[in-house]
Amino acid sequence: MTNEPTRIVILTNMVGPGEVDEDLESETASECEKYGRVIRCIVKEVLHPDVPEEEVVRIFVKFEQIDAATKAINGLNGRYFGGRIIRAYYFIESEFNKINF
């Protein structure tokens, strides 16, 4: 995560461990299209004992433009989804490109 604006947004705390369903990725991409063109949306569940429960499911959204990512963060961070408060952050693009999805 970074404070420097990038085209990549990471969303956490949308769902808990084991709660990922087949529609989460497409529904998230569709919702994020309200902020700008989405190039890619990927849901990744990180099962590691050191990862806090609210960060286990990470949703990466790659936008075409940085300003769309900024709009998404402003629109989604702190918003409620299924009784949870979404956390949205910029993610370093070079690190995103290294992740093995």
Work out the number of β strands.
6
Strand content: 25-35%
> Shape, please?
globular
Mean of residue pLDDT values: 93
| Uncertain stretches of 5 or more adjacent residues | none
Structural class: alpha+beta
Helix content: 25-40%
H/E topology pattern: EHEEHEEEH
Can you list the strand order of the major beta sheet? 2-3-1-6
Q: Radius of gyration, Cα only, in angstroms?
A: 12 Å
Distance between the termini: 18 Å
Characteristics of this structure?
alpha+beta, four-stranded antiparallel β-sheet, two-stranded antiparallel sheet, 26% helix
Secondary-structure map:
Elements (H helix, E strand, L loop, with lengths): L7 E5 L11 H9 L5 E8 L11 E7 L2 H11 L3 E2 L2 E2 L1 E5 L1 H6 L3
Antiparallel strand pairs: 1-3, 1-6, 2-3, 4-5
Q: How would you portray this structure in words?
A:
- The protein has 101 residues and is α+β, with helices and mostly antiparallel strands.
- The chain is built from three helices and six strands.
- The chain has helices at 24-32, 66-76, 93-98, and strands spanning 8-12, 38-45, 57-63, 80-81, 84-85, 87-91.
- The chain has a four-stranded antiparallel sheet with strand order 2-3-1-6.
- Strand 4 (80-81) and strand 5 form a beta hairpin.
- The longest helix has 11 residues, at 66-76.
- The protein starts with 7 loop residues before the first strand and ends with a helix.
- The model has no long low-confidence stretch (mean pLDDT 93).
